[in-house]
Request: fold
Amino acid sequence: MCPIWRLLVLLSLLSLPSALHKQPWRALAKAHMDSKPALARIIAQGLMKYNAEGRIQNIRLMDSLNASGQMAPGMVGWLIGSMSLQHQQESSANITNIQLDYSGIQMSFHKEQFSANILFEFDIDLRLPFNNKIVKTHVCMNLVVEFWLEKDEFGRRDLVIGDCHVEPSSIYMTVLTEDISPKMKHFLHNFRGTLAKVLPNPVESQVCPLIGEILRQLDVKLMKSLMGCCS
Reply:
Protein backbone atom coordinates (compact mmCIF):
# COMPACT_ATOMS: atom_id res chain seq x y z
CA MET A 1 0.00 0.00 0.00
CA CYS A 2 2.84 2.35 0.79
CA PRO A 3 4.31 2.41 -2.78
CA ILE A 4 0.85 2.98 -4.25
CA TRP A 5 0.20 5.86 -1.86
CA ARG A 6 3.52 7.48 -2.76
CA LEU A 7 2.68 7.12 -6.46
CA LEU A 8 -0.67 8.88 -5.98
CA VAL A 9 0.97 11.74 -4.08
CA LEU A 10 3.62 12.12 -6.81
CA LEU A 11 1.00 12.23 -9.56
CA SER A 12 -1.01 14.86 -7.70
CA LEU A 13 2.07 17.05 -7.26
CA LEU A 14 2.94 16.76 -10.95
CA SER A 15 -0.54 17.90 -11.95
CA LEU A 16 -0.55 20.89 -9.59
CA PRO A 17 1.67 23.31 -11.61
CA SER A 18 -0.44 22.98 -14.75
CA ALA A 19 -3.60 23.66 -12.76
CA LEU A 20 -2.04 26.72 -11.11
CA HIS A 21 -0.81 27.92 -14.49
CA LYS A 22 -4.25 27.74 -16.14
CA GLN A 23 -6.35 29.21 -13.35
CA PRO A 24 -4.98 32.80 -13.36
CA TRP A 25 -5.48 33.10 -17.11
CA ARG A 26 -9.10 32.02 -16.76
CA ALA A 27 -9.59 34.54 -13.95
CA LEU A 28 -7.97 37.31 -15.99
CA ALA A 29 -10.12 36.56 -19.02
CA LYS A 30 -13.23 36.57 -16.86
CA ALA A 31 -12.19 39.87 -15.25
CA HIS A 32 -11.65 41.40 -18.68
CA MET A 33 -15.16 40.38 -19.74
CA ASP A 34 -16.90 41.25 -16.47
CA SER A 35 -15.22 44.50 -15.38
CA LYS A 36 -17.22 46.92 -17.53
CA PRO A 37 -20.59 45.41 -16.58
CA ALA A 38 -19.43 45.25 -12.95
CA LEU A 39 -18.63 48.98 -12.84
CA ALA A 40 -21.87 49.79 -14.64
CA ARG A 41 -23.78 47.75 -12.04
CA ILE A 42 -22.01 49.56 -9.20
CA ILE A 43 -23.02 52.95 -10.63
CA ALA A 44 -26.57 51.76 -11.34
CA GLN A 45 -27.02 50.36 -7.82
CA GLY A 46 -25.67 53.57 -6.33
CA LEU A 47 -28.06 55.73 -8.36
CA MET A 48 -30.95 53.54 -7.25
CA LYS A 49 -29.78 53.69 -3.62
CA TYR A 50 -29.63 57.49 -3.67
CA ASN A 51 -32.96 57.75 -5.52
CA ALA A 52 -31.65 59.62 -8.56
CA GLU A 53 -35.00 59.29 -10.34
CA GLY A 54 -36.85 60.91 -7.44
CA ARG A 55 -34.36 63.76 -7.30
CA ILE A 56 -34.80 64.51 -10.99
CA GLN A 57 -38.56 64.32 -10.68
CA ASN A 58 -38.46 66.88 -7.84
CA ILE A 59 -36.61 69.49 -9.91
CA ARG A 60 -38.52 72.78 -9.76
CA LEU A 61 -38.49 73.20 -13.49
CA MET A 62 -40.61 76.36 -13.61
CA ASP A 63 -38.22 78.09 -11.21
CA SER A 64 -35.27 76.98 -13.34
CA LEU A 65 -36.93 78.34 -16.47
CA ASN A 66 -37.75 81.70 -14.91
CA ALA A 67 -34.32 82.01 -13.25
CA SER A 68 -32.45 81.17 -16.43
CA GLY A 69 -33.14 84.48 -18.14
CA GLN A 70 -34.12 82.52 -21.25
CA MET A 71 -37.77 83.48 -20.76
CA ALA A 72 -39.48 86.46 -19.22
CA PRO A 73 -40.79 86.06 -15.64
CA GLY A 74 -44.05 84.19 -15.80
CA MET A 75 -43.42 81.69 -18.59
CA VAL A 76 -47.04 81.51 -19.69
CA GLY A 77 -47.27 85.30 -19.61
CA TRP A 78 -44.58 85.25 -22.28
CA LEU A 79 -46.96 83.20 -24.39
CA ILE A 80 -50.17 85.20 -24.17
CA GLY A 81 -48.80 88.67 -23.54
CA SER A 82 -50.58 89.54 -20.32
CA MET A 83 -51.77 87.38 -17.47
CA SER A 84 -52.77 87.95 -13.89
CA LEU A 85 -50.40 86.91 -11.10
CA GLN A 86 -52.89 84.22 -10.06
CA HIS A 87 -52.82 82.67 -13.52
CA GLN A 88 -49.04 82.81 -13.62
CA GLN A 89 -48.96 80.92 -10.31
CA GLU A 90 -51.40 78.33 -11.66
CA SER A 91 -49.09 77.43 -14.55
CA SER A 92 -46.72 74.50 -14.00
CA ALA A 93 -44.06 72.40 -15.68
CA ASN A 94 -43.48 69.08 -13.92
CA ILE A 95 -41.15 66.19 -14.66
CA THR A 96 -42.93 62.81 -14.65
CA ASN A 97 -42.32 59.19 -15.70
CA ILE A 98 -38.58 59.44 -15.12
CA GLN A 99 -36.59 56.42 -16.29
CA LEU A 100 -32.85 55.79 -15.98
CA ASP A 101 -31.53 53.08 -18.24
CA TYR A 102 -29.70 51.24 -15.45
CA SER A 103 -29.02 48.17 -17.58
CA GLY A 104 -27.75 50.25 -20.48
CA ILE A 105 -24.97 52.25 -18.77
CA GLN A 106 -22.05 52.25 -21.20
CA MET A 107 -18.47 52.18 -19.94
CA SER A 108 -15.42 53.25 -21.95
CA PHE A 109 -11.82 52.59 -20.92
CA HIS A 110 -8.49 54.05 -22.00
CA LYS A 111 -5.49 53.07 -19.86
CA GLU A 112 -6.32 54.46 -16.40
CA GLN A 113 -9.12 56.73 -17.60
CA PHE A 114 -12.70 55.82 -18.30
CA SER A 115 -16.16 57.32 -18.74
CA ALA A 116 -19.74 56.29 -18.06
CA ASN A 117 -22.63 57.19 -20.34
CA ILE A 118 -26.08 57.17 -18.71
CA LEU A 119 -29.37 57.56 -20.58
CA PHE A 120 -32.25 59.49 -18.98
CA GLU A 121 -35.82 59.61 -20.26
CA PHE A 122 -38.74 61.50 -18.78
CA ASP A 123 -41.89 63.45 -19.61
CA ILE A 124 -42.56 67.11 -18.93
CA ASP A 125 -46.18 67.97 -18.20
CA LEU A 126 -46.80 71.62 -19.05
CA ARG A 127 -50.08 72.96 -17.70
CA LEU A 128 -51.41 76.25 -19.04
CA PRO A 129 -54.16 77.94 -16.99
CA PHE A 130 -56.00 79.69 -19.82
CA ASN A 131 -57.28 76.37 -21.19
CA ASN A 132 -56.35 74.05 -18.29
CA LYS A 133 -54.81 71.64 -20.77
CA ILE A 134 -51.71 69.58 -20.06
CA VAL A 135 -49.19 69.35 -22.89
CA LYS A 136 -46.83 66.40 -22.54
CA THR A 137 -43.31 66.44 -23.96
CA HIS A 138 -40.98 63.42 -23.90
CA VAL A 139 -37.29 64.13 -23.27
CA CYS A 140 -34.19 61.94 -23.78
CA MET A 141 -30.65 62.89 -22.81
CA ASN A 142 -27.28 61.31 -22.05
CA LEU A 143 -25.15 62.22 -19.05
CA VAL A 144 -21.41 61.55 -19.34
CA VAL A 145 -19.04 61.35 -16.38
CA GLU A 146 -15.26 60.97 -16.68
CA PHE A 147 -12.87 59.76 -13.98
CA TRP A 148 -9.36 58.35 -13.71
CA LEU A 149 -6.56 57.28 -11.38
CA GLU A 150 -3.88 59.89 -10.77
CA LYS A 151 -0.52 59.51 -9.00
CA ASP A 152 0.42 61.88 -6.20
CA GLU A 153 3.97 62.97 -5.35
CA PHE A 154 4.54 59.74 -3.40
CA GLY A 155 3.43 57.49 -6.26
CA ARG A 156 0.11 56.63 -4.68
CA ARG A 157 -2.95 56.60 -6.91
CA ASP A 158 -6.10 58.53 -6.08
CA LEU A 159 -9.43 58.41 -7.89
CA VAL A 160 -10.11 61.75 -9.58
CA ILE A 161 -13.59 62.65 -10.79
CA GLY A 162 -13.53 64.86 -13.84
CA ASP A 163 -16.21 66.35 -16.04
CA CYS A 164 -19.84 65.34 -15.49
CA HIS A 165 -22.27 66.85 -17.95
CA VAL A 166 -25.32 66.31 -20.13
CA GLU A 167 -24.19 65.90 -23.72
CA PRO A 168 -25.95 68.73 -25.62
CA SER A 169 -26.18 66.74 -28.86
CA SER A 170 -28.01 63.93 -27.03
CA ILE A 171 -31.01 66.02 -25.99
CA TYR A 172 -34.07 64.99 -27.94
CA MET A 173 -37.65 66.15 -27.34
CA THR A 174 -40.96 64.98 -28.78
CA VAL A 175 -44.36 66.58 -28.15
CA LEU A 176 -46.75 63.74 -27.33
CA THR A 177 -49.96 65.76 -27.07
CA GLU A 178 -52.06 66.03 -30.22
CA ASP A 179 -54.71 68.57 -31.20
CA ILE A 180 -52.61 71.66 -30.46
CA SER A 181 -53.55 75.13 -31.71
CA PRO A 182 -51.19 77.02 -34.06
CA LYS A 183 -50.44 79.53 -31.32
CA MET A 184 -49.55 76.70 -28.94
CA LYS A 185 -47.34 75.04 -31.57
CA HIS A 186 -45.38 78.26 -31.93
CA PHE A 187 -44.96 78.46 -28.17
CA LEU A 188 -43.88 74.80 -27.90
CA HIS A 189 -41.28 75.32 -30.61
CA ASN A 190 -39.68 78.08 -28.50
CA PHE A 191 -40.29 76.17 -25.29
CA ARG A 192 -38.37 73.14 -26.55
CA GLY A 193 -35.42 75.32 -27.51
CA THR A 194 -35.45 76.90 -24.06
CA LEU A 195 -35.66 73.51 -22.33
CA ALA A 196 -32.63 72.24 -24.23
CA LYS A 197 -30.63 75.14 -22.76
CA VAL A 198 -32.08 75.08 -19.25
CA LEU A 199 -32.54 71.36 -18.45
CA PRO A 200 -28.91 70.19 -18.34
CA ASN A 201 -27.93 72.32 -15.36
CA PRO A 202 -30.59 71.14 -12.86
CA VAL A 203 -30.18 67.52 -14.00
CA GLU A 204 -26.41 67.73 -13.58
CA SER A 205 -26.78 69.37 -10.17
CA GLN A 206 -28.90 66.45 -8.96
CA VAL A 207 -27.08 63.48 -10.53
CA CYS A 208 -23.39 64.43 -10.70
CA PRO A 209 -22.91 64.73 -6.89
CA LEU A 210 -24.50 61.28 -6.50
CA ILE A 211 -22.11 59.75 -9.03
CA GLY A 212 -19.21 61.45 -7.29
CA GLU A 213 -20.27 59.94 -3.97
CA ILE A 214 -20.62 56.48 -5.55
CA LEU A 215 -17.18 56.62 -7.14
CA ARG A 216 -15.48 57.89 -3.99
CA GLN A 217 -16.65 54.74 -2.21
CA LEU A 218 -14.84 52.47 -4.68
CA ASP A 219 -11.59 50.80 -3.68
CA VAL A 220 -8.64 52.28 -5.62
CA LYS A 221 -6.90 48.89 -5.87
CA LEU A 222 -10.04 47.40 -7.38
CA MET A 223 -10.27 50.27 -9.85
CA LYS A 224 -6.63 49.85 -10.81
CA SER A 225 -7.04 46.12 -11.46
CA LEU A 226 -10.19 46.62 -13.51
CA MET A 227 -8.65 49.41 -15.54
CA GLY A 228 -5.47 47.42 -16.03
CA CYS A 229 -7.26 44.42 -17.46
CA CYS A 230 -9.31 46.56 -19.83
CA SER A 231 -6.66 49.00 -21.09
